[in-house]
Amino acid sequence: MLVRTLKGEATAQVPIWLMRQAGRYLPEYRALREKTGSFLDLCYSPEQAAEATLQPIRRFDLDAAILFSDILVVPDAMGQPVRFAPGEGPVLEALADRVSIDALITDRVESHLAPVYEAARLVRAALPEAIALIGFAGAPWTVATYMIEGGSSRDFARTKGWAARDPEGFDALLAKIEAATLRHLLAQVRAGAQVLQLFDSWAGVLDEAFFERLVIGPTKRLVAGVKAEAPDVPIVGFPKGCGILYARYAAETGVDAVSLDPAVPLDWAASALQPHVAVQGNLDPILLLIGGEAMARRSGQILAALAGGPFVFNLGHGVVPPTPPEHVAELISLVRKATGT
Ligand code: CP3
210-235, pLDDT tens digit by residue? Predict the structure, then answer.
């Protein structure tokens, strides 16, 4: 059902899955995490990554599983090692110059990330047929920010500065990330992924000229690359925080669907986006954390505005760690009841 909805078919039911539906808010994930080494060790252990992917599926009536991995496995595979320091987020040795870009390799994605694809195969084999497997990657701009800043950032000054000062060098970096990401997405499809999502978490910090060059351009080329090999796999784009530029993103990149952050107005999404692409979203994860009446009221508004067209219920960003798992069950049940499923 998810696949059909994302391709724009009017399905009787509204499919639901949640970004970060696996992870620290689940006690069984925290228990699994205690048995594994680092977060990346978990991502690179096929049985354990498959287990983390399946945990929310066992607990909840979801329409899709999203492969348990991370967007930063791609720079790791390109020869820029990533580690996740507890409480600190991702840490990479920041790219410094053209020489460090030239040193990146794009052709060992399939070998370095073989355990990730093995996890996908295990998950697909264990999932009921009606539940879709979602593969994903970071979009080149967002992945570049981590590679240049060496981790998370407040203002992206190094990355934007590089893009402005040395456009050819920066474009060479984006082209390398694009090439590695295309290989990563296609390998996930070969391993059983039926839907792909591109996370562009920092698309919202760019002016329109940068947005066109650094978000729309690379996304359009990636989508075309995937479509050439896997035309039936719908692609969801998530250019978080980009405001009315969602309209250009939906019209120009070739994605089948856009995932909406919580700030996108519902009526605008219905009139400006939904005629062209399927939409997914956009409950504020904090309302899932709070639960109860506030969550129910807003979910009702979202459904009223968007369930008339191709629509997938989701959050506007990932589940936050203190979320009570019972609230997830409650949300799914209210979406099922409201849409008669
Ligand atoms: O359930 C799912 O959604 C699938 C798994 C998934 C993870 N990360 C697991 C994860 C997905 C789709 C991602 C995407 C991701 N990773 C993004 C894009 C979405 C977004 O959040 O904007 C980004 C920017 C990253 C990079 C990243 N990974 C950061 C900044 C961090 C540290 C912050 C944090 O939340 O801990 C991670 C670590 C990470 N990725 C965890 C998980 C479950 C936590 C690791 C742990 O268990 O300790």
Answer: 999 999 999 999 999 999 999 999 99
Nearest to 32 by CA among 16, 49, 18, 57: 49
Q: Is 33 a catalytic residue?
A: yes
Would you state the pLDDT for residue 219?
98
Q: Whose CA is nearest to atom 21 of ligand 1?
A: 318
Catalytic residue status for 117: no
Tokens encoding 200: 């562009």
Q: Does domain 23-256+317-322 have CATH number 3.20.20.210?
A: yes
pLDDT at 341: 53
Over range 242-268, report the average pLDDT: 98
Closest ligand 1 atom, CA of 136? 12
DSSP codes of every residue in 129-181: TTSEEEEEEE-HHHHHHHHHHSB--SS-HHHHHHHHH-HHHHHHHHHHHHHHH
Residue boundaries of the structural domains of the chain = 23-256+317-322
Q: Order of strands across the sheet with 132-138?
A: 64-66, 132-138, 195-200, 235-239, 257-259, 278-283, 311-315
**pLDDT tens digits, 158-190:** 999 999 999 999 999 999 999 999 999 999 999
Average pLDDT over residues 103-120: 98
The per-residue pLDDT for 229 is: 98
Nearest to 54 by CA among 69, 68, 43: 68
CB 199 less than 6 A from any atom of ligand 1: yes
Contact 13, 29 (CB under 8 A): no
Verify whether ligand 1 is closer than 6 Å to residue 133 (CB atom).
Answer: no
20 is a catalytic site residue? yes
